[in-house]
Structures
1.
Amino acid sequence: MVEQQLFDVHADLDVTRAELELIGVHVEQAQHALAEAKVRVALAETPLAQREHAAARRRLHDLEAQYAATQEELERLLVTQDALLAKLVV
């Protein structure tokens, strides 16, 4: 039973690590988009540029929150894995 749980947690860890990597790429892209939007606001000073900047800022904030939540899930899975390994050894 412990072996199966450990196998399941390991599979979940693989998925979560892949998600974290993908979200990290999206965060980098959103940071770049926000930087570009800041430049457009500074140069154009139009309502459209300001809306695009606000949207880029919200997108980055949402992605950063998603990254943090996924990181917390990864940490929780690692704790679970450690607990299962301890049971297996004992």
Note: The chain has a mean pLDDT of 96.
2.
Amino acid sequence: MVDVETGQVTVEKLVMAVDSGVIVNPLTASGQIEGGMTQALGYAVCEEMLYDKDGKPREVDLRDYHIFAAQEMPSLETIFVETFEPTHPFGVKAVAEIPMDGVAPAVGNAVLDACGANVDVAPVTPERLWRALRGPKA
């Protein structure tokens, strides 16, 4: 959901299909994917390390740095597309890193589709979206 007045982006559902090789432990594998989706969603819409003019981090604790609380998370769904990886004796593939790649571009494309604004910098903060909606002079 995109609020064009405030620039707030709210992801209501996140679905990820994963080419996972052979799944040995489905519960652990889905937990890895969901954890990565959670981290990637933070990168996509709210988490950003900012630095002062001397190169020191502005965020030094979690008081003013927003990470998602459990009640703020969208519905998560993982779809495993099982294949056999011939280079591994059991046909498995790594799954933990996969979710990091697609969430930010998917959110950016969803925002573009929803309101026509192209925010090509992560995270899609309300200010960045608000400015993108109002053009280059905003």
Note: The chain has a mean pLDDT of 92.
3.
Amino acid sequence: MTNLLMQPAQLFVLAIGFALENGGHTPVHHLFALASLLIVFKVPGALGGAEKTAHKLESAFTTGLHGLQHVVARAA
């Protein structure tokens, strides 16, 4: 799922960078455009980190539900 969302997220950040570049011709606009280009390279790492966190949360939730099933089974 992460790989599926990575490309649209990168294209969105690139579109923002191009819009900032076309919006004006001051050095600040150029710096913002360059900053967006650097962010594009950070998107895969950010999405990968989010995927790892989601996997850990899912694992903890599944373990908790499994433990709850054992408690209910012993009580019955």
Note: The mean pLDDT is 79.
